Amino acid sequence: MQGRIQRPRPIPIFEPMSGIRRQSIISTVVIYAGFLVGLLNTYLFTRNGLFTKDQFGLYNVLIAVATLMGNISALAMPTFLYKFYPYYKSHLPDKKNDQAALALVVALIGFVLVLVGGIALKELVVRKYETNSPQFVHYYAWVFPLTFGLVLYIVLEAYTWQIRRSVFTNFLKELLWRLYTSVLILLYASGVLKSFGTFIICFSFSFLFIALILFGYLIRSGQLHLHFRISRVTRRFAKTILRLCLFVFGGSAILILSQVFDSLVIASVLDNAMDQVAVYTLGQNLAIVIQVPQRGIVSSSIAHLSQAWKDKNMGLIQRIYERSSINQLIFACFLYGLLLLNFTDAVETFKLQEGYRKAFDVILLLGLCKIVDMGTGVNAQIIATSTWWRFEMISGIILLIVMLPASYILTKQYGIAGTAAAQLAAISIYNLVRILFLWFKFRLFPFTRWTPVVVVLAIAALAACWYGIPAGNGLLSMFLRSALFTLLFAGSVILLKASPDVNPVMDAVKKRFSRK
To answer: How far is CA 350 from CA 120, 159, 230, 252, in A?
Structure first.
């Protein structure tokens, strides 16, 4: 949207916000249930006597490579769905809507190209990883079925978000996918899966499993219509769609590379690489728990942001931006505090392998990274759904310019703590660039007067619990520290009404229980 923004008559914004809040809460509950299963899986991978650190490292490297390949294969089709769904929906009957079919066909073509490239570059992979990560070379072929399932799921998930069924996609990816892995772990532990190689082969079809379930759900519910004849909307917007996909593809590929580059560089340059990846991944997985509310908010906000840009409703966009920032910041600070306070006792109490204690530094730095990313709101989604989507690639290039050399240099010098420090520096700069862009271009800003208050409250509560209740007493220390931190931080946030959404949720819960 160039030039001066013309503001039409006011459009009600409270109903979209309540819808986003409701879907975000449900999605967050589902995602947290999934993360509990994920934490159980991580525990089984890291405890003594079942998997080695080398095997856990391989499992995570395969996921990292498949994530990179899958998002490259998608060829920006999720953004195509986010941006143009309102136009297809308003100009075409459902059975004549070719957007979903077009997105799936293009993504499958992208996968074929990645498959051919991956086979052609196998010798390069062998030379790069054979010394430090020989197991990855041995199981390299099973990256491709894992990637294929992920490609299908990515596109179908983006379409499902647009029809505002994000809760179901979160159930599949965050809960059912992890349960699938749990079943494989139990089958391996009981001897039904005779070898770790069989475990990896079965796991490589995990994304395809949930993609087929989602596809069947959409077909059976009548929400997905695969019309393969090019529509008038596609012909009308063809050049714009092509430009969008080219720019966003570059930006998305860069962003995904930045997200998985840490594991790849560790596997490439450090001695005992898979062991180091395993320790880093434990810290990474725990830090990702902090980011759970972001997933629910993003999936619930995308459709509303797309419609708001179409309607030129800048008031709604600003409201979503502010609320996503303060809500995510509160959740991130709360979960970060709990992780830092309890990690050391958890390693001892749950009898993890001793080497995993080194993951504390990773949690410390990556946790701050998640706070920065969440506290700056849904800036990426606002840009991606606007007409200034080209900035997606520009900001991604800035991220890559900082992250790639920083990750390589700091990893070689400081090990996995250096990798995490590089992530923190790069993500901070990346989000700063996006904040400045949205402010100077649209006068959109994520922070409110409560932003610094929440940060100060979190630091004060963390310090009080860290120094007030000593670690080293196992479950007792964990319980006391968690209870006190919750009382101090969460209680202060509620009493001060730091978020306009926290208290309405509390009131709704009270009303629900009072009726019962």
So the answer is: 44, 41, 57, 38
